[in-house]
Amino acid sequence: MPKAAVHSIKFTANVVLYALAALFLFPLYWMLSGAFKDQSSAVKFPPELFPSMPTTANFDKLIEGGMIFKWLGNSVIISVLATAGVCLVASMAGYALTKKRFAGSKLMFTAIVIAMFIPRQITLVPLFTMMVEMKLVNNLASVILPVISIPFAVFLMKQFSHSVPTELLEAGKIDGCSEIGLFFRIFLPIVKPALGALAIFAFTQSWNDYLWQLIMLSDNSKMTINVGISTLVTEYVANYGLQMAAATIGFVPVFVVFIVFQKYFVKGITLGSVKG
């Protein structure tokens, strides 16, 4: 193929990619710009792409009440504990399903795979009944516990666990390492990229789990940032600038987590593509 044709194809591909990137980033920009608009500018038609009179009044109003920080703190607590729980439980399950031989292991993994195809809405009623019986309604634990048992997390860690050489674990056992030592000292360091990818997935899943949080948390002081934002919309008033400001504040922790775990996420994706 002539060089001119190759350069033309690359140029066209780059233009398409940049256009798609701008398209996907536009909602984020609209949220950020809307946070600095007053109500009249937010509902103006045709809409303003750039705030003509930027204002921090929306952020000031959110900070004045202080409830936004309570909501944000609840979201952070829920997401961090849920992420830690998911990573620990899923890595243990992956370790057991790949490195331990026991009766029913294949049947158990099949059940986990099947559970991945069950729609989330079907599980809401049984989960709610369980939480009522455990007296955890309107408690942060009711939002954390269901996230820990994500079937996809177990599936992901099992697939990555195949990358850990069994011979290495056997060598550690010969050297006198206990089962807990094998798991924490040998197994976990090797699957660290997978844990990074899983941490991003679990944190985002827990942070954005609006429906279940809305069902379980009714006390204003127990609400998360997502549920709290919904309370800013009343029957007669919808302050879009205020909602955009609250959404911007809620976006920051997720962005920070992605930046911190980004290198592990990329390594995890690459490792998964090789080991399958």
From TrEMBL:
GO terms for biological process: transmembrane transport. This is Carbohydrate ABC transporter permease. One of its GO terms (cellular component) is plasma membrane. Belongs to the binding-protein-dependent transport system permease family. Keywords: Cell membrane, Membrane, Transmembrane, Transmembrane helix, Transport. It is a multi-pass membrane protein. The keyword Membrane applies. SUPFAM superfamilies: MetI-like. InterPro entries: MetI-like, MetI-like_sf. Its main location: membrane. The chain crosses the membrane at residues 12-32, 76-97, 109-128, 140-161, 182-203, 240-261. Gene3D superfamilies: MetI-like. It is found in: Cell membrane. PANTHER family: ABC TRANSPORTER PERMEASE PROTEIN MG189-RELATED (PTHR43744:SF12), ABC TRANSPORTER PERMEASE PROTEIN MG189-RELATED-RELATED (PTHR43744). Residues 72-261 form the ABC transmembrane type-1 domain. It comes from Paenibacillus contaminans. The keyword Cell membrane applies.
